[in-house]
Amino acid sequence: MTSLTGTGTLVRLILRRDRVLMPIWMLCMALLPLGLASGTASLYPTDAGRQGYIDSLAASPMLLLFYGQKPAEPSLGALIFWRSATGIVIMGLIGLLVVIRHTRVEEEAGRRELLGSAVVGRHAPLAAAVLTVSGASLVVGVLVALGMISQQTPASGAFAMGFAWAFAGILYAGIGALAAQLTTGAGTARGIAGAVLGLDFLLRGVGDVSGGGLTWLAWATPLSWVYKVHAYTDDRWWLFAVCAAVAVVLAYAALRLSARRDLGAGLLPPRLGPATAPASLSSPFGLAWRLHRGSLIGWTIGLGVVGGVLFGGVAKTASSLLEGNGQLTEIMERIGGKSVASDIFVGGSLGIGAIAVAAYGISAALRMRTEEAALRSEPVLSAGVGRLRWAAGHLTFALLGPTLVMAATGLFAGLVYGSSTGEIGRQVPRVIGAALVQMPAVWLLTGLTVAAYGLLPRLSPAVGWVALSLCVLLGQVGAALQLDQLVLDVSPFTHIPHLPGPAAVPATPLLVLTAIAAALTAAGLAALRRRDIPVT
Amino acid sequence: MDNAISVVGLTKSFGQAKALDGLDLTVARGEVHGFLGPNGAGKTTTIRILLGLLRADGGTATLLGGDPWRDAVALHRRLAYVPGDVTLWPNLSGGEVIDLLGRLRGGLNAAKRKDLLERFDLDPKKKGRAYSKGNRQKVGLIAALASDVELLLLDEPTSGLDPLMEEVFRQVVAEETRNGRTVLLSSHILSEVEALCDRVSIIRQGRTVETGTLAELRHLTRTHITAELATPPNGLAHLPGVHDLKTDGATVRFQVDQAELDAVLRQLTTHGVRGLVSQPPTLEELFLRHYETEPVR
Q1: How far is it, in rounded angstroms, from Cα A343 to Cα A356?
Q2: Can you give the pLDDT at residue A262?
């Protein structure tokens, strides 16, 4: 097979390039079910307790959408396989993203051309990418299985679960490889493959929730086969044969498609743009809108609408859950504050949403750095645009974008939560308020990133992401590790009042956080005015 | 004289590395000024300082009568800039980028835009990621040339263009200068410099080593002479200004400094000149001399 010459070398190249990224995601995925299992084992040590837990979760259609049909028996393993189903979707997402990263991205960047001129078979790069991701997925699967065995669950179930996770990665690596053949842009390829995963998820969810005549949908997609393995209860090993066969067919189809096209080209013709710019594209702000609108829309739908509906939908179920479980209440109170159970849950969910939205704010602010490093700020800054005006375009989205997303999250959470308790008029403003009260902490992290961008441009991505990771760490595990309050106070999220709740909102911490955010932003902009551009 | 650009003793360091070390540059209004030098000599750094993107450590720079750092925004409305490596936004079409940059500068000439798109044979509908290097360069050139500005700062603008497009570029720049525009053209393509530039400045290691018209610069170098004489020459080697003399019977080949040409020709005629070939110094020689790390002189 000369068309595969060099595959081994290319696998090593991928491993070398991803030597940091790959172990991180593999470890994260392997630890996810392990952490969930050890936590659940101590919270619900008995079958009866677990059955109650399962029943209360399964009462929410929203959770069935995510987790699939509830397990037939309340063993720890079955509960964890069911509860950690999100991990299956994440494995699929990682599979398709990594394959596209090593195929279409390389081709778009022109690096694939360099390889193509070396002694490398036509199919080697694609084969190497699919093989590497499949191998990594299998390793994750084995690690998951070993983790579950360490939690005293039966080995056969543990390996069924591990392979289910592995095949999610492998199947969607195939989907990613197919999508990478279709378009010339990596972004569009990611969009197509991601949309397939999203659609599969939705179809499977509808099938599981609806019961009745649509049950067949729960069997219709690759994702659903992985769910239907039902590790620890049915252990449907034969499904892996189906998955393996389909994975081979997908990879083969991708190779055939890649053989039929030119290097750099896609099967779908590249879309052309307009010959002249619309009137909206006449200012630094107009340019910023074009650059930021995709992620703004994505975040608004992803977190605002989907996340909001989910937070609101689960709240009422969660309250019955919390009432029977002191330990879980304590955990949620730590995030959401002392209040009515459902309020605690909504507040806690919005707190987690705020962390996600802070990531959006930081990445939007760092867009300035990307533009500068790619030398795309230069033509704008030498065309009659002052530095502050240029920065203001991006900062509008870095500061107000997250605010809009958070408001949408509050709105949809409030609507769903309110409709479940029959008091929409009361809940919508309460929950929107609880969402927006998080913003000063989000702005502070964005401001810190802007300050770093002005003063230490090269380090600004590290500063932003390390600060966010620190906040996550302090917020999620800080209290559990019984760290000193002074240490916990470092995170701006520690100072956010717990809403929705009965207590009056103290204005001082919000004002202080906002003032610090403003000062940091101003410092960054002042430094930006003075320094050299570009710093590469 | 009314200068578009006037730079005196400019210095700039990046950490330990000295990029500019007392650079001087004067560009008169209405001229095309060639800006030459080996890679890393400081050409791009100088242009970025003129654009107010970098801040000079020392020296003075005046651009269109203003301070490039302090008056950056106002000055930028009166100039257009093409970098040596035009990078485009992957999701914006070429036409959109041309319009955006033109509008940011305060509007662009629609007739010129259309004309340039045709002459440079550019499809404005393609997205940024789909353009080749040469076509990206065309997007930058059209965006700059379609604006009615006083000054064009061009930093190796034709890198990646094919010879046909290179010719179009020369025609367009020649037309622009007839309309009174000033051009600072950084380039490595000597024929381009020769065809377009009134004056050139050669810089090396952040310092200006030569400036003047091409004719003036030629005077600084040597003419190649090949002469067929009636009698074998003698004494020629001892004349001042004669270099690399090679005698082959009655045929002599040598180089002579421009200043001594007259005296040397007198001496030649005493031997009875039967044939004479004189070659002016090529630009390549001129530049190579300055580009070499150690001065030849």
Answers
A1: 20
A2: 74
B133 or A270, greater pLDDT: B133
How much is the average pLDDT of A407-421? 91
Q: Which residues contact B175 (CB under 8 A, 6 or more apart)?
A: none
Chain A residue with minimum CA distance to B123: A275
Contacts of B280 (CB under 8 A, 6+ apart): B218, B223
Spatial separation of the C-alpha atoms in residues B258 and B224, rounded to whole Å: 10
Nearest CB among B77, B79, B96 relative to A281 is that of B96
Q: Do A382 and B93 touch (CB under 8 A)?
A: no
B68 touches chain A (CB under 8 A): no
d(CA B59, CA A212): 82
Q: Which residue of A has its CA nearest to B96?
A: A277
CA nearest B92 in A: which residue? A273
**Helical ranges in chain B per DSSP H:** 43-50, 72-76, 94-104, 110-119, 133-145, 163-178, 190-196, 214-219, 261-269, 283-291
pLDDT of residue B50: 95
Residues of B in contact with A273 (CB under 8 A): 91-96, 125-127
B81 touches chain A (CB under 8 A): yes
- Set of chain B residues whose Cβ sits within 8 Å of the Cβ of A376: 87-89
Find the length of chain A. Answer: 536
Contacts of A277 in chain B (CB under 8 A): 95-100, 103
What would you measure as the largest C-alpha separation in chain A, in angstroms? 73
Among the partner-chain residues B76, B101, B126, the one whose CB lies closest to the CB of A272 is: B126
Query: What is the chain B residue with the closest CA to A390?
Result: B104
Q: Which residues of chain A are within 8 Å of residue B95 when distances are taken between CB atoms?
A: 273-277
Closest to A96 in 3D by CA, of A245, A219, A197, A202: A197
Calculate the alpha carbon distances from A243 to A163, A174, A237, A282, A449 in Å.
Answer: 10, 11, 10, 51, 44
B81/A287 CB distance under 8 A = no
> What digits encode the pLDDT tens for the residues B62-88?
999 999 999 999 999 999 999 999 999
- Whether the pLDDT of residue A399 is over 90: the answer is yes
Closest to A42 measured CA to CA, from A318, A317, A331: A331
SS3 state at B251: strand
CA atoms of A360 and B43, how far apart (whole Å): 39
* pLDDT per position as a tens digit, A295-331: 899 889 888 888 888 788 777 766 666 665 666 666 6
* pLDDT of A434 higher than 60: yes
Task: Give the residue from B44, B97, B100, B131 with the most A CB atoms within 10 Å of its CB, the best one to mutate.
Answer: B100
Q: Is B122 on the interface with A (CB under 8 A)?
A: no
Which residues is B17 bridged to in the sheet? B14
β partners of residue B184:
B33, B153
State how far the Cα of A84 lies from the Cα of B247, in Å rounded to an integer: 92
pLDDT band with cut points at 50, 70 and 90 for residue A213: low
Closest residue on chain B to A534 (Cα): B53
The H helix count followed by the E strand count for chain B is: 10, 13
Q: CA A247, A250, A256, A257 torsion: positive or negative?
A: negative
ipTM here: 0.82
Distance, in Å, from the CA atom of A508 to the CA atom of A200, rounded to the nearest integer, reads: 47
pLDDT of the residue at B296: 40
Q: Please list every residue in chain B whose beta carbon sits closer than 8 Å to the beta carbon of residue A291.
A: 89
Residue B249: which pLDDT band, with cuts at 50, 70 and 90? confident
Mean pLDDT for chain B? Answer: 88
With a cut of 80, say whether residue B288 has pLDDT above it: no
For residues A190 and A50, the answer to whether their CB atoms sit within 8 Å is no
Spatial CA neighbour of A147 closest among A44, A252, A32, A12 = A32
Whether the CA torsion A59, A61, A67, A69 is positive or negative: it is positive
